[in-house]
Amino acid sequence: MASVAYQHVFKRYSAEAVAVKDLNLQILDTEFMVLVGPSGCGKSTALRMLAGLEEISDGEIKIGDRIVNEVPARERDIAMVFQSYALYPHMSVYDNMAFGLKMRRTPKNEIETKVSQASKILGLDNFLKRKPRQLSGGQRQRVALGRAIVRNPQVFLLDEPLSNLDAQLRVETRINLQKLHKDLNATFIYVTHDQVEAMTMGDRIAVMKDGILQQVASPREIYDDPANLYVAGFIGSPKMNFVPVTISGSTAKASGFSMQLPKAPGIEAGVLGIRPEDLTEVPHEGFPQIDMKVEVVEVLGADQFLYGKVGGDDMIARLDPQFKVSIGDRVRLNVNMRRIHLFDVNTERAIL
Amino acid sequence: MSSRPPAGAAVAEGAAVPARRRRVRSLEASNARFAYFMLTPALLCLALVAFYPMVNTIVTSFTNSTFGQNTTNFIGLDNYTKLVQDPAFRTSIWTSVRFTIITVVFEFVLGLIVALVVNSSFRGRGVVRASMLIPWALITVISAAMWKLMYNQIYGVFNDILVTRIHVLAANVDWLGSPATALPAVAAIDIWKTTPFIALLLLAGLQLIPGDVYEAADVDGAGKIRTFFSITLPLLMPSILVAVIIRALDALRVFDLFYVLFGQRPDTTTMSIYVQEQIIYFGKVGYGSAVSVALLFIIAIFIAIYIMMSRWSVARS
Amino acid sequence: MSAATADTLPQQRRKPVKVGKVASRGLFFLLVGVILLYILFPFYWAARTSFMPDSDIYLTPVQYWPNNFTFQHYINAFSETTFVRSILNSAIVGISATVIAILVGSSASYALARFNFLGRNVALYLILAMSMFPGISILGSLYTVLQRFHLYNTLYALIIVYLTFSLPLMVWIMQSFFRGMPRDLEEAAYVDGASQFQTFWRIMIPLAAPGLATVGILTVMGCWQEYLFALSFLLSSSKWTVPLAIANTGANQASAFQIPWGDQMAETLVVMLPLIAAVLILQRRIISGLTAGAVKG
Lengths: 352, 317, 297
Known about the structure:
heterotrimer, A: Rossmann fold, CATH 2.40.50.140, 8 helices, C: mainly alpha, MetI-like fold, 16 helices, disordered N terminus
């Protein structure tokens, strides 16, 4: 079984510097799990603890049913693709991929079979004799993948594998990685700071910040149902609009408008969250209206974004590109009440 | 299926940790074990080749061990009291110190000049740089032989030029023979051999100084000399310190040159020669060991001074 | 860099600077010439002497170019078995000492560079301190140790004893070398299934080859030069290394009063020429090795 479990895992460098705080995360067999968050949020540290490259300060990490805290990296049956690829410069592509198998004393003919299999999948057949310095970035990345595939491990760990590639290659590789995941039917754990990668690739996403797990859910759920302010603002581009409101009963009052909430949230101050696409120029029944003074208009072919002020608050709206609007206009926007969010001071949301 | 931290999650360190708390140190422990394993051969050799002999020397310095005699007795600090009163020992220290000062000063100044020259680009610079390694590559004993020939009173080249050809000096000088010129003459050999090496070290330091520092000085209107003293020299300080201390340590310990050229002469006895004289020539192993320890002590003082100076210069930057 | 100054000077100022520049340029090259002369003259003198018959060497006025060329000294040099044998001995000692230094020192350097453990700093300073020992101080005790192991008057004695400088040199250079390598490679090897030792042996050592080569060169050169220990621990002339053989040139000959300059210079040149050639070829390596440790302190 190739599931992975973090149970109350901590990583402390000193009394003040805690990189990972009480991480509890369950990753299912054959799942593609993405750990996402800004630099320094602890995602790479969590990955490295699983790999056996960092000491686990507290808690347990399990691979399958096995607690691996005391198991050295080489016996954990995992493979890792590093951000820098970490290919052995003095070895050929073939030897790079064969290295892991050689360390496990695999017989020579078996090594050959496995390496050529992997090489075929990744299109490396022509490069087997070359050294890493003779390869392009994309080719090196494939070799790093090949090195991992060849060992047929229980879990694949990938640490920001796309960050060193140019934009086009990144898109290509993203697709190839997803295909690879399906073909290999293995557990993938993927670390990135890019929320687009997270949303497109993951079966589930785990958002981290400052060493604390913020939310774990499918991309759809994270988008529609963010657990807190941070997740709501992190996922989705352009960012969700945040409007500070005071609430009495079930009325929320912002600086530029007030509206009736579906139910009384029981708090007096909060932050209203509205995604740009949930503001529309088309009136609907039950949609409250707000007025925006437009400051910037961005037309992007299939979309149109309006940046402006509602009362004293900055907001962004995504509208139909055919809607004619110019800078300085006052636009009446309709708020999709079914999709707004309300956040207590940084902790929870009360309404969908 | 989503999981979110409970409202007001207590995420203070250690607050929500369950009863079973594991202090795991396996990675560090295994690394440490590996490191010790890797270090052992080196440490064993060290013990055999350096530390056991060192301890042995120290122990012997408290005895009256003499070559050829089978019985050795502890005599406490007698050797050391003799040492402190020994005029020959003091002379040897003075000789070593004089030699060190002359060589280090000249090597530093000349080395700096050569480094500055080679630092600027000119045609043939590679050739000069390459040739700078040659004296250093030379075996000390061989350079001693070469220079001995040149210093010869009768058919040596120096006397030939200075006396016969240019008539700067009146009569042939016995450079190595007469006490007045012996030390400077030997120093000249060491300077010849080591200046290029020092120049290389300083050159490396010079090339570490970024070009824009000079440009800024230029813009500020600093002349060449001003630039040198206020900018180049201070930035070069770390390299200078390293070069000076390496040379000073070597100069204090010098043996080869003096032995090959002078042997056991009293006016050119450095500390190392004195030790050798006592132990090997006279066979006074116990006393010689005491002198050895004294030598080691003097070296250690210099090293301590160096460490203090480098800490001080690092603290300043 | 300094070209900027010339370009920014106003037109009127250019002329005097130009004249000054020619003069200073000439002075500069004069200085370069002096430096070259200073460095190379003794070699010229040695070469000159080696080609002159003995009688001419003692003549005054001194000849700057040999009037009578002779190869006799070179023939003498090559027929003197002590000398020829000494070259072989030095080579054996140099290569063996280097091999041992690499074996013992590379593992120590790796441990010191990569791992944090109790006593790491102490070990590092101890090893480096070993190079500061005055050789003379431990001479007597080393002699006793070698006697006990029956190594006196053998080349093995030297090979072992030279660790006093080859080991610290090795650690000095390789330690900073290993430090400079990215950790990714070791981590990738661990994940791939290599033990710490396998990682060291199969990944780090091959990549450290340039550093090892530098240390090897410097070690061989150091062994070649060493005089004190060779003098003290080698008795029979058949075991002599090069410094001993040259210092004792013609010691066996009848005329013990006059130093056989010609022969000695010939031997000198025979040894030095290949050495100089090697140094020139390997100079980049050598310089980087010498300055790496020194400049970084």
